[in-house]
């Protein structure tokens, strides 16, 4: 199943979510709407709201409350992007200037705060304390993950376990929250709700592992970001950690220096060392393991085009080039 087919399965719902997002961006402060609209319109896969829509339809949701939930998830994700770009001093996302590059750091942070608070206003409207609990916890864990990643930057002694802790909190948690809260809202059984929670978590980990691979073999034009960004920021991602562990003495010294200092002065040499070490294949295989685990969580769902689309997502997550 192609990506276009996956989105087509919930196309009508997606249109409704887009309308809801635009309506909820209203503000008496013009700059808030301007920046919010800019970041929302900048494209992206919208995988997290897609998860809400697919899981809800796969579970035969009888009410359309899940549309608001999908919009909430997208607002939470967009807020984290605005904040991340400031922290990472990024100037390119999805092939466009970041909001902080266009308007500055302060407006970007404050509009991110607005999107968070608007998301929580919408959560209250759902009137489901279990969903609110999941999303509030996820928001907290994501913030912790961002801080943890910041403290790990430029530290070549980070372990693989510490790296996995960061990506689980920073990225996979919102995937988990999307599929988990959708199952709760649909009043699914405890067993199915647990399956959907774990599905989102494992899919999110697989997605981030491949993201970190693409930083060393992706195409900047295709990805809409700068290849080598993680290296420039001194982020010790799994490809770097594995290459450091498996490389010879010269390669280890090179990679440790690159992590400690950040920057792209040694980009070609580091990328060569990463490729020669087998680090990319190692990371891809680990991503496939998580994708396989995620797919197994779908076995108990009733057959449907939506379940097929969820299965397809686990394949696309590890076979993408952007």
UniProtKB/TrEMBL annotation:
It catalyses: 5 isopentenyl diphosphate + (2E,6E)-farnesyl diphosphate = all-trans-octaprenyl diphosphate + 5 diphosphate. One of its GO terms (biological process) is isoprenoid biosynthetic process. Its cofactor is Mg(2+). Keywords: Magnesium, Metal-binding, Transferase. It comes from the Bacteria. The keyword Chaperone does not apply. GO terms for molecular function: all-trans-octaprenyl-diphosphate synthase activity; metal ion binding. Its EC number is 2.5.1.90. Belongs to the FPP/GGPP synthase family. PANTHER family: ALL TRANS-POLYPRENYL-DIPHOSPHATE SYNTHASE PDSS1 (PTHR12001:SF69), GERANYLGERANYL PYROPHOSPHATE SYNTHASE (PTHR12001). Supplies octaprenyl diphosphate, the precursor for the side chain of the isoprenoid quinones ubiquinone and menaquinone. This is Octaprenyl diphosphate synthase. It comes from Hahella chejuensis (strain KCTC 2396).
């Amino acid at each position: 199943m192609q990506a276009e087919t996956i989105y087509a399965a919930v196309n009508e719902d997606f249109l409704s979510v887009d309308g809801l997002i635009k309506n909820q961006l209203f503000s008496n402060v013009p700059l808030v709407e301007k920046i919010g609209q800019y970041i929302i319109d900048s494209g992206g896969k919208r995988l997290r709201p897609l998860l809400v829509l697919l899981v809800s339809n796969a579970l035969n949701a009888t009410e359309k409350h899940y549309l608001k939930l999908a919009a909430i998830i997208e607002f939470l994700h967009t807020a984290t992007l605005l904040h991340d770009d400031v922290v990472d001093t990024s100037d390119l996302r999805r092939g466009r200037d970041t909001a902080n590059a266009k308007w500055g750091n302060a407006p970007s942070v404050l509009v991110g705060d607005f999107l968070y608070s608007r998301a929580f206003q919408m959560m209250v409207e759902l009137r489901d304390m279990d969903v609110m609990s999941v999303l509030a916890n996820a928001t907290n864990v994501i913030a912790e993950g961002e801080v943890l990643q910041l403290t790990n930057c430029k530290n070549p002694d980070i372990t693989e376990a510490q790296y996995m802790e960061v990506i689980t909190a920073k990225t996979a948690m919102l995937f988990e929250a999307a599929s988990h809260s959708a199952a709760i809202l649909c009043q699914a059984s405890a067993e199915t709700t647990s399956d959907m929670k774990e599905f989102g978590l494992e899919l999110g980990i697989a997605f981030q592992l491949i993201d970190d691979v693409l930083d060393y073999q992706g195409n900047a034009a295709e990805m809409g970001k700068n290849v080598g960004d993680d290296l420039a920021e001194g982020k010790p991602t799994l490809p770097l950690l594995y290459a450091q562990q498996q490389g010879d003495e010269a390669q280890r010294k090179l990679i440790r220096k690159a992590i400690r200092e950040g920057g792209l002065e040694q980009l070609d040499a580091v990328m060569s060392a990463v490729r020669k070490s087998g680090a990319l294949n190692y990371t891809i295989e680990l991503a496939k393991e998580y994708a396989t685990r995620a797919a197994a969580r779908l076995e108990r769902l009733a057959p449907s085009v939506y379940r097929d689309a969820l299965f397809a997502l686990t394949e696309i997550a590890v076979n993408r080039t952007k």
